[in-house]
Write a structure and sequence with these properties.
Number of domains: 1
CATH architecture: Alpha-Beta Complex
Number of helices: 4
CATH topology: Aspartate Aminotransferase, domain 1
Low-confidence stretches: none
CATH class: Alpha Beta
Order of helices and strands: HEEEEHEEHH
Number of strands: 6
Largest sheet: 6 strands, antiparallel
Structural class: alpha+beta
Radius of gyration: 13 Å
Strand content: 15-25%
Oligomer: single chain
Length: 119
């Protein structure tokens, strides 16, 4: 399962975003985060990886530049989602930015504007 420090970091980032709730995905117990019932971040049951939505070209760029940190996840990889290893050294500023970008792709425009301070 995801360790306490990593779980706390992910929760701090995700729950700081407008209208985000933590809710397990399917029958899993691993943390997942949603905005208006739409997933923007999932963690694996073993806590070793997380998956997030990315814009065009981002998945390919991340996997090509840091294959030890990022991967194309099964099932959702074809839809632009990116996997990130949580059991390796990660740049948490970059992870924060990637999570926020995932939120921007999934959340309604009004919530994105609120997040970005445009409202």
């Amino acid at each position: 399962m995801i360790d306490d420090e990593m779980g706390a970091r992910l929760r701090e980032i995700c729950l700081s975003l407008p209208e985000v709730v933590e809710k397990p995905f399917g029958g899993h117990t691993a943390p997942s985060f949603r905005v208006r019932e739409k997933l923007f971040l999932m963690t694996s049951e073993d806590g070793l990886t997380m998956m997030f939505k990315a814009g065009p070209g981002v998945q390919e760029a991340l996997v090509a530049s840091a294959p030890e940190r990022f991967f194309v996840p099964a099932y959702v990889g074809g839809k632009g989602w990116v996997g990130a290893q949580l059991d390796v050294e990660q740049d948490w500023d970059e992870i924060d930015e990637l999570i926020r970008d995932s939120y921007r792709l999934i959340a309604p425009k009004r919530l994105v504007a609120l997040m970005d301070g445009r409202v």
